[in-house]
């Protein structure tokens, strides 16, 4: 497998070299909004540990990401008045991966509303800001 590339965009976000709409951070993970959301509130949870995908991440680091996704899912249900949540995590190009720092997609869903195809539309910064605010408030409310 290809080695982890420290210049991938999510590594730059982790180092603060590239901005993001952060919704949650702890010792092990960072969660921020996807800039090309497939649904409103589409969030990515990434490990702080460098890992390309499920094939090289340490199991404990993967568990931290799963814990983060679990937290975001509960908050997203409230923040977006959702009916359900889709969680996805792609590995290697054959598995649909485009950015090579492991990430879990957490997407709030509504009955009868389809997701947009991946990377179909860059969202307005203002909308991303509003959605981040909603998620942060739901996370705070517990
Ligand atoms: P994938 O690797 O297929 O799981 O998808 C990568 C995801 O990262 C896509 O949903 C992109 O919209 C998203 N993405 C790419 N660049 C950024 C960025 N700078 N900030 C937030 N999301 C991003």
Automatic annotation (TrEMBL):
Record GO biological process: nucleotide metabolic process
Motif Histidine triad motif, chain ranges: 101-105
An annotated Gene Ontology molecular function: catalytic activity
Source organism (scientific name): Bradyrhizobium cosmicum
Active site (catalytic residues): 103
CDD domains per record: HINT_subgroup (cd01277)
The protein, known as: HIT domain-containing protein
Record-annotated HIT domain positions: 9-116
């Amino acid at each position: 497998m290809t080695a982890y590339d420290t210049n991938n965009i999510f590594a730059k976000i982790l180092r603060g070299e590239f901005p993001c709409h952060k919704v949650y951070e702890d010792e092990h993970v960072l969660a921020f909004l996807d800039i090309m959301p497939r649904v409103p509130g589409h969030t990515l949870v990434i490990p702080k540990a460098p890992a390309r995908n499920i094939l090289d991440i340490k199991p404990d680091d993967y568990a931290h990401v799963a814990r983060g996704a679990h937290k975001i899912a509960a908050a997203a249900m409230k923040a977006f008045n959702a009916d359900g949540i889709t969680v996805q995590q792609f590995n290697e190009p054959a598995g649909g991966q485009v950015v090579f720092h492991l990430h879990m997609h957490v997407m709030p869903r509504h009955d009868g509303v389809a997701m947009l195809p991946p990377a179909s539309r860059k969202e307005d910064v203002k909308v991303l800001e509003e959605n981040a605010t909603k998620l942060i408030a739901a996370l705070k409310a517990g």
